[in-house]
Write a structure and sequence with these properties.
13 strands, Jelly Rolls, 13% helix, mainly beta, single chain
Length: 208
């Protein structure tokens, strides 16, 4: 291939990429995978946390015990979760209205959290804004759960903020799934003990 033809081909390829990018930007797909838990590299994008940071115990079993050596003064224990590591920038979900997850539950009620850029909290605070919704599935059954973004409530340290606030889905910085030993929806299994939640994928959907 001559040098002139090679330059022409490179220009054509660049133009094609630009056209594809612009078309997807103007007309995004109706569904977009955020996470697919189908490889070790995907799992590495998440990390675990629990009340062990405050003196509790986490080993696939919820415990209400608190270590006497804990430097933290808390009144309750028995929570854990998995949170995605910080995105490289933001994920723009402004073109979508629903979060969908393929899950297999254990009869407990979990909490889905979306973290967005901090603009609700006071200036100087480094914590992301959190928006939460309950996730409840019957035991041992794969299901696709769909949660409208408008169903996610603004929270601060686990408590719902009693104010009219709107999530900015264009500035999503992370997500998490967590579990408390107490609380949740009526009929869900609660209390200390074993837990197991299997996740196949998480995606954004446009349903309207």
């Amino acid at each position: 291939m001559s040098r002139l033809r090679a330059l022409w081909q490179a220009s054509v390829n660049a133009t094609k990429r630009a056209v594809v990018w612009n078309s997807e930007d103007l007309f995004p797909p109706s569904e977009r995978y955020i996470f697919k838990f189908n490889s070790k590299d995907e799992v590495k994008k998440w990390h675990l946390y629990s009340d062990s940071e405050y003196g509790g115990v986490f080993s696939g079993n919820l415990s209400l015990d608190m270590s006497e050596e804990s430097p933290w003064r808390i009144r309750r224990s028995g929570f854990c979760g998995m949170r995605s590591k910080k995105f490289d920038g933001f994920i723009d979900l402004d073109s979508y209205d629903t979060i969908a997850m393929k899950l297999r539950g254990d009869g407990r009620c979990y909490i889905s959290t979306i973290y967005t850029e901090n603009w609700v909290n006071s200036p100087g605070q480094e914590e992301d804004n959190s928006w939460q919704a309950f996730v409840y599935l019957p035991q041992d059954s794969w299901q696709i759960l769909k949660i409208p973004l408008e169903s996610y409530l603004p929270t601060w340290k686990g408590n719902v903020i009693e104010a009219k606030l709107e999530m900015n889905p264009a500035r999503v910085v992370g997500m998490s799934l967590s579990l408390n030993a107490e609380g949740g929806v009526p009929g869900a299994r609660t209390g200390p003990g074993d837990f197991r939640l299997e996740v196949d994928w998480i995606k954004a959907m446009r349903t309207l």
